[in-house]
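On clarity, I found the account of how folds are encoded harder to follow than it need be. Since the whole study asks how a given chain folds, the encoding of that fold should be made plain. For illustration, here is how one protein appears when written out as sequence plus structure tokens:
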Amino acid sequence: MSTEVRTHTALHVLKGAVQRVLGAKWTTSTYVKEDHGRLVVRYERKPTPEELARISEEANRKITENAEVVQFEMERGEAMQHFGDSIYDLFPVPASVTILKLVNIPDWNVNCCVAKHVESTSDVGTISVDRARFRNSRREVEIEFHVESG
């Protein structure tokens, strides 16, 4: 599996941890290049060092669980009924798209996503949170990370 596929899947693992630790629901942007990534979420303040440590711990705990990463397609209305608006981010899926491509790490994260993913969280490797930057004017936290081979 390519490094970028592992890193992209790490975004979903990290987002699940961010939701649990911070309660931040909405992703405003993402970026992946090789083993580096960036997750930007809507949030009201910069996370504390303790919160960032907990995010890292939670994400890596999910990786060691060897949780299944399920990729599938679903009719948009059915997906909304089943998962609600949590499948979306703040970069919208065009209304003309009626069949959604979804990625689901059960009981952790579910999102619309057209990228490729690994089959199990254990395939990701270790996630290291490098830094977090708070953008007060946008009410966003930008979390930079990298993935190391497991």
Remarks:
- The beta strands are 27-33, 36-42, 70-75, 99-105, 109-112, 126-135, 140-148.
- Residues 3-22 form the longest helix (20 residues).
- The chain has one domain: 3-148.
